[in-house]
């Protein structure tokens, strides 16, 4: 082989060696880069490459289930000890079935946890996450229990009442200055302003003192004109004898000296026996009281300011106890006229007015007592309405306000009794009656102590408020009772 060929072969071998060396260096660089990438992955997610890859050939059934370690006790209600249905979580952290919580609330009337007795705030809502979990884990049990709940009318009624309670609570918080409550509060405010203005004007003109002069003035100081005015108040029949009293200038002292014989003889000549007995009966009342007896509501208020205010509020809050109070402590002056007006005796149609006036001082018959006791026990507000109806000719608008208020109070009392009966809590009625009796006695005693220190202006405002504005408030209460009877707690 020549030298030139050897040189060419040596150059070819050198070139091949260089190519192999370069290829080896490149492969070495690639492996180093792969190891660096692997080290970076291990640093970022340790153990990501340590686990064995999943065996795709295994079926899902061969994998262990995640629900095998979950027991039904962990998702059970502590009221019914069954799987939670519509779980409701309270502020204390305990969860119960919503229908169990509704039944507990309806029976106890308390917003507290059935387990720890901690009061909840606001209105409990359904725990959506816990509900979805129980629906997925125990779908068959939950569906069965929901069907049982829907088929039970008592549970459905309790759930409806509980939800209405929450709706009312939400409306009370979000709409405090809207709706009927705002309307009634505005009306009451306007009427209060009007009443105060009327009272101020009435007192400033002094008409009250002129109209009620005989109520506070002793009969021995009456002038002849005041005696004639007293005679006119007895009724239209008394005007027949007005001129003799005026001609003789009979004053208060002479009036107290008159008897049956003096009235029968001239110059008075009251020959009608019924007329003469009526005048003598009213004269006996004047001698007993020392002043003119009240002939209407306003005169009674002036003569008995504290008593009229007490009776007005007491008849509204507890009519039976108030009527019993009148029977025990004010029999002749107030109770007898009240009974004869509400339960009149059976008389002839041609009976004169003066005879009717005289009969109000007689003892009631057993028929009157029977009728009165039945109304007293069952419909006490009807007695008040009948009494106000008899005074329509004297107090036109005032009597109508009293009648409407008595009707509204009767509806409220009926709703309360129906709620007790529906909730099978009628046995609690004696206990509630005793609590009511104790409350009324304590309030009456407090009123008797504080009455001398209360300004007359405040008492008059309270009187007119209770007389004219209570029906407006009671209308709102009746609407609430009739629309949402289930949500009213006693």
Automatic annotation (TrEMBL):
| InterPro entries given in the database record | SAM (IPR001660), SAM/pointed_sf (IPR013761), Znf_RING (IPR001841), Znf_RING/FYVE/PHD (IPR013083), Znf_RING_CS (IPR017907)
Report the protein name in the record. Answer: Bifunctional apoptosis regulator
According to its UniProt entry, this protein's organism is Monopterus albus (Swamp eel)
Q: Where is the SAM domain?
A: 222-289
Q: What subcellular locations does the record give?
A: Endoplasmic reticulum membrane
- What GO molecular functions are on record for this protein? ubiquitin protein ligase activity; zinc ion binding
- The Enzyme Commission number assigned here is 2.3.2.27
Q: Per its UniProt record, what Pfam families does this chain match? A: SAM_1, zf-C3HC4_4
Membrane topology is: Multi-pass membrane protein
Q: Where are the transmembrane segments?
A: 12-31, 181-203, 401-421, 441-467
User: Gene3D superfamilies, alphabetically?
Assistant: Transcription Factor, Ets-1, Zinc/RING finger domain, C3HC4 (zinc finger)
Q: What does this protein do, in the record's words?
A: Membrane-bound E3 ubiquitin ligase that plays a role in several processes including apoptosis regulation or reticulum endoplasmic stress. Has anti-apoptotic activity, both for apoptosis triggered via death-receptors and via mitochondrial factors. Contributes to the dynamic control of IRE1/ERN1 signaling during ER stress by inducing BAX inhibitor 1/TMBIM6 proteasomal degradation. Promotes the activation of TGF-beta signaling by mediating the 'Lys-63'-linked ubiquitination of TGFBR1 which is critical to activate the pathway.
Task: Using the record's annotation, list all stretches that form the RING-type domain.
Answer: 77-117
Q: Which catalytic reaction applies to this protein?
A: S-ubiquitinyl-[E2 ubiquitin-conjugating enzyme]-L-cysteine + [acceptor protein]-L-lysine = [E2 ubiquitin-conjugating enzyme]-L-cysteine + N(6)-ubiquitinyl-[acceptor protein]-L-lysine
Keywords carried by this UniProt record: Apoptosis, Endoplasmic reticulum, Glycoprotein, Membrane, Metal-binding, Transferase, Transmembrane, Transmembrane helix, Ubl conjugation, Zinc, Zinc-finger
**Which SUPFAM superfamilies does the entry mention?**
RING/U-box, SAM/Pointed domain
Known SMART domains for this protein?
RING, SAM
Q: Name one GO cellular component term.
A: nucleus
Task: From the UniProt record, give one GO term of the biological process aspect.
Answer: apoptotic process
Quaternary structure, from the entry: Interacts with CASP8, BCL2 and BCL2L1 through SAM domain and also with HIP1, IFT57, ESRRBL1 and BCAP31. Interacts with NGFR; this interaction inhibits NF-kappa-B and JNK-related signaling pathways.
């Amino acid at each position: 082989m020549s030298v030139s060929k050897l040189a060419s072969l040596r150059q070819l071998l050198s070139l091949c060696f260089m190519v192999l060396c370069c290829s080896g260096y490149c492969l070495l660089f690639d492996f180093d880069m792969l190891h660096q990438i692997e080290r970076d992955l291990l640093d970022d997610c340790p153990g990501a490459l340590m686990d064995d890859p999943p065996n795709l050939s295994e079926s899902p059934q061969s994998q262990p289930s995640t629900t095998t370690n979950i027991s039904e006790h962990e998702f059970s209600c502590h009221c019914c000890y069954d799987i939670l249905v519509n779980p409701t979580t309270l502020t204390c952290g305990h969860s119960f079935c919503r229908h169990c919580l509704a039944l507990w609330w309806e029976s106890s009337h308390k917003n507290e946890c059935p387990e720890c007795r901690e009061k909840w705030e606001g209105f409990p809502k359904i725990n959506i996450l816990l509900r979805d979990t129980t629906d997925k884990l125990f779908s068959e049990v939950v569906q069965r229990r929901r069907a049982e709940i829907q088929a039970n009318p008592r549970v459905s009624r309790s759930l409806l009442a509980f939800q209405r309670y929450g709706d009312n609570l939400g409306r009370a918080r979000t709409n405090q200055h809207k709706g009927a409550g705002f309307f009634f509060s505005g009306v009451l405010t306007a009427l209060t302003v009007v009443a105060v203005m009327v009272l101020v004007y009435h007192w400033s003109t002094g008409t009250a003192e002129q109209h009620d002069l005989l109520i506070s003035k002793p009969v021995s100081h009456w002038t002849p004109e005041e005696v004639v005015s007293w005679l006119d108040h007895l009724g239209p029949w008394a005007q027949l004898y007005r001129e003799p009293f005026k001609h003789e200038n009979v004053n208060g002292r002479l009036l107290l000296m008159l008897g049956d014989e003096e009235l029968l003889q001239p110059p008075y000549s009251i020959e009608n026996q019924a007329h003469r007995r009526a005048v003598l009966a009213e004269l006996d009342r004047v001698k007993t009281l020392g002043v003119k007896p009240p002939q209407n509501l306003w005169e009674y208020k002036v003569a008995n300011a504290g008593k009229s205010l007490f009776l007005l509020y007491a008849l509204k809050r507890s009519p039976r106890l108030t009527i019993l109070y009148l029977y025990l402590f004010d029999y002749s002056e107030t109770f007898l006229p009240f009974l004869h007006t509400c339960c009149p005796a059976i008389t002839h149609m041609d009976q004169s007015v003066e005879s009717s006036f005289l009969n109000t001082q007689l003892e009631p018959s057993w028929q009157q007592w029977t009728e009165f006791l039945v109304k007293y026990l069952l419909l006490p507000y009807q007695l008040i309405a009948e009494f106000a109806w008899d005074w329509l000719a004297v107090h036109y608008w005032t009597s109508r306000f009293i009648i409407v208020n008595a009707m509204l109070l009767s509806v409220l009392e009926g709703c309360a009794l129906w709620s007790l009966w529906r909730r099978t809590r009628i046995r609690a009625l004696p206990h509630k009656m005793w609590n009511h009796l104790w409350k009324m006695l304590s309030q009456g005693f407090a009123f008797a102590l504080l009455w001398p220190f209360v300004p007359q202006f405040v008492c008059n405002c309270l009187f007119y408020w209770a007389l004219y504005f209570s029906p407006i408030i009671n209308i709102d209460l009746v609407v609430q009772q009739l629309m949402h009877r289930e949500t009213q707690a006693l």
